Amino acid sequence: MEPQSLYRAACLAAETYRREIVQRLGPAHEVAAHAEWNRDRFWLWVIDRAIEHVEGRMFWAECGKRNFSRAGQRPDLDLAIRRVRDIQQQLAGDSLPSFKAKEELVRKLAEVANQLLE
Known about the structure:
The chain is built from 4 helices and no strands. It is mainly α. Helix 1 (6-25) packs antiparallel against helix 2, helix 2 packs antiparallel against helix 3 and helix 3 runs antiparallel to helix 4.
């Protein structure tokens, strides 16, 4: 599998997001779309890419050879991936959690996501 660059893919994803927002809401929202990607969406996107790497679906060069396709070899990684998905669903839920509750969910997400890569 050909290694891909997370940095290059992140730039493309950010640009795609910015274009979609500008197309829907107009050019006045371009700066806000860029800021939202950087503030709210980038890290969630990166966590999904790390999961792809650990599961062996995509080789991201920045995640390293050692971490590629390790999920099948380590049951704790499968559990971590399930926990990440559960927390992501809680963050994306219909109701808006309080700032403190969201902060706690993001803290838990970071803690679990840090288990994915060595």
